[in-house]
Design brief:
A: 364 residues, alpha/beta, Rossmann fold, CBS-domain, 2 domains, four-stranded antiparallel beta sheet, 13 helices, 33% helix, 24% strand, B: 218 residues, mainly alpha, 9 helices, globular
Chain lengths: 364, 218
């Protein structure tokens, strides 16, 4: 656990970057610091490994004051990932990743063996080991950055806008990757970003900071979207927060309806309206409007209208249920089970009813 | 050409002497310039002081320095140490700026991430900043080395050995072939040392010669 107690950073010219920050970063979770530029989020992060020294207050890591020991030693126990990875251009990928183990005094063979393991962990092909950072794409470099931070298996990982310099598609895959890794590793992660969508996607807890280094709200992402404490947070959280907030509401209370289906190659019932076409394993392939379709024989791929998003019953949220309903050409959302087979239907009305109940419970 | 063939052993001796005067200053100068360049890169006051002093030193004429040094060092006028010290001063004067510039060019993101990994500042300097400054430092070293090799010839005027002796000798005895041979030899020596530095540089910086991934998909 990382504890900020009245932490302040005031520069000699009088600028206050962080003002009396009190905050507890839970062990084994992802805590995101988010806010506009000048809000002190990066300063707060860098004070944890003493890249910047606080001018007031205390930071405790597992109950120990970080100012007590040697800064270099403290840093070797804390993984650090920065924007554009900050890799060493003069070292191969393998040696970049082996950096901290070597600093900790491992022998070269062990450090490299560990580095090779980590390349696999973060999804880098082994043939990249001997390459230099400039030979890699931005996304690959960022993976190397994460592998390097994880090399000595530190309990804490600090990530300073690590994905902001890569394009949106790569960023999304890196985010997914981070969540997958975190599922396996359970590190205490402090993540800085200026992107609220990234914050609510990755964070177990999100700290919204305002310019001048004041903590505005510290909450889980669902609450942040549902109940911003003031206009600043409301504005910062941005548009569509009601809709995005559904992403943090469980769909457990949602009951599925019946869904008429027909298997590919079979003949649909006439005048049945919209029917969902499935393959032999029950997986949705597309929709067929029997009222409009001229086809009289068996259903083929050529008759299908593409379906909308799918609502996964096991891991879905109200947001994915609602989106499934809204994006479906028939107006009826398709729910699937963990095998991808059709489990039933969901309508926008059902979702709104469940939401209503949930809000009544919240208020009670 | 006949002069050259008739004096091969003399030429060989002068060449060795020349190297004896030129090589130590290049190496000692580089070794001294690295910590000085590091200091110059630490803060702006130190930087301007060091760079001004070294710029000033470089303007002292070499002949004057050869004459000035013996009383200062307490050495005899023909002590080889005079030449070596003088040329070391020039090498340092040239290289302090180069080392400072090379270190300054290391991206701060790389330095910061090294610090954040847990490098102590000395270790970071040796294993991150200095290796990354090698291309710039070696470019400066090539200039300093060629300059040292050429300056050794001036020492011959006051009686030191080296290939410069071929010029004084040629002048006194009126042997034009010897002058030309001397020029060619100094040139070849400079080219050889320069080539050696380039080769060392290539061995030290494999990372500068790899292609980039621009446009490569993630």
């Amino acid at each position: 656990m990382i504890e900020f107690r009245g932490v302040t950073k005031r520069y000699p010219d009088g600028t206050v970057a962080v003002d009396e920050l009190d905050l507890e970063v839970e062990a084994g979770r992802i805590t995101v610091f988010v806010g506009p530029s000048g809000c002190g989020k990066t300063t707060s992060l860098r004070m944890i490994n003493r890249m910047i020294e606080p001018s007031g207050g205390t930071i405790l890591v597992d109950g120990k004051d970080i100012m007590a020991g040697d800064p270099a030693e403290l840093r070797r126990g804390i993984g650090y990932v920065i924007q554009q990875a900050g890799l060493f251009p003069h070292r191969t990928i393998l040696d970049n990743i082996a950096t901290v183990p070597l600093l900790l005094g491992w022998n070269k063979a062990d450090a490299r063996k560990r580095a090779a393991e980590l390349m696999e962990t973060v999804g880098l092909a082994p043939e990249m080991a001997k390459r230099y950072p400039t030979q890699l794409s931005g996304g690959q470099q960022q993976r190397v950055g994460v592998a390097r931070a994880l090399a000595a298996d530190p309990p804490i990982l600090l990530m300073d806008e690590p994905f902001s310099a890569v394009d949106p598609v790569v960023r999304e895959s890196l985010q997914e990757e981070l969540l997958r890794l975190q599922g396996e590793l359970g590190k205490t992660i402090v993540f800085v970003t200026h992107d609220i969508d990234e914050a609510v996607k990755l964070g177990d807890k999100v700290a919204v900071l305002r310019v001048g280094g004041k903590l505005a709200q510290f909450d889980d992402p669902g609450h942040l979207l549902a109940r911003p404490v003031d206009d600043f947070v409301d504005n910062f959280v941005g548009r569509d927060r009601g809709y995005r907030g559904l992403g943090f509401r469980s769909s457990a209370a949602l009951t599925l309806g019946e869904l008429p289906t027909v298997t590919l190659g079979e003949k649909p019932a006439r005048h049945a309206g919209w029917v969902l076409v499935v393959d032999a394993d029950g997986r949705p392939q597309g929709w067929l409007n029997t009222a409009e379709s001229a086809a009289d024989g068996p259903v083929g791929h050529e008759h299908l209208v593409p379906g909308g998003s799918l609502y996964d019953v096991g891991s879905g949220s109200l947001r994915s249920a609602l989106d499934a309903a809204l994006s479906s050409p028939s107006g009826v959302g398709v729910a699937v089970d963990e095998r991808g087979a059709v489990a039933g239907s969901v309508s926008a009305d059902d979702v709104l009813r469940v939401l209503d109940d949930a809000r009544r419970d919240d208020a009670a | 050409m006949t002069w050259v063939l008739g004096n091969l052993s003399l030429i060989g001796e002068l060449l060795l002497q020349h190297l004896y005067f030129a090589i130590p200053p290049i190496i000692i100068g580089l070794v001294l310039a690295i910590p000085l360049g590091w200091l110059a890169n630490r803060n702006t006051v130190l930087r301007s002081t060091l760079l001004n002093v070294s710029g000033l030193l470089y303007t002292v004429p070499s002949l004057a320095l050869f004459v000035l040094l013996p009383p200062l060092l307490g050495t005899g006028i023909l002590n080889p140490a005079n030449v070596i010290v003088a040329l070391t001063i020039y090498t340092v004067a040239l290289l302090v700026r180069t080392v400072a510039d090379g270190l300054d060019a290391v991206p701060s993101a790389v330095v910061n991430s090294a610090t954040a990994m847990g490098y102590t500042s000395l270790r970071r300097f040796i294993s991150v900043e200095l290796p990354m400054a090698v291309p710039v430092i070696l470019a400066g070293l090539r200039v300093a080395a060629v300059s040292a090799i050429s300056l050794v010839t001036v020492g011959a005027v006051i009686g030191f050995g080296g290939l410069g002796k071929m010029f004084t000798d040629a002048f006194q005895r009126d042997i034009p072939a010897e002058t030309i041979a001397g020029i060619v030899l100094v040139l070849l020596l400079a080219l050889a040392v320069d080539g050696l530095i380039v080769l060392i540089g290539r061995a030290l910086t494999p990372w500068t010669r790899v292609g980039s991934a621009v446009g490569r998909p993630a």
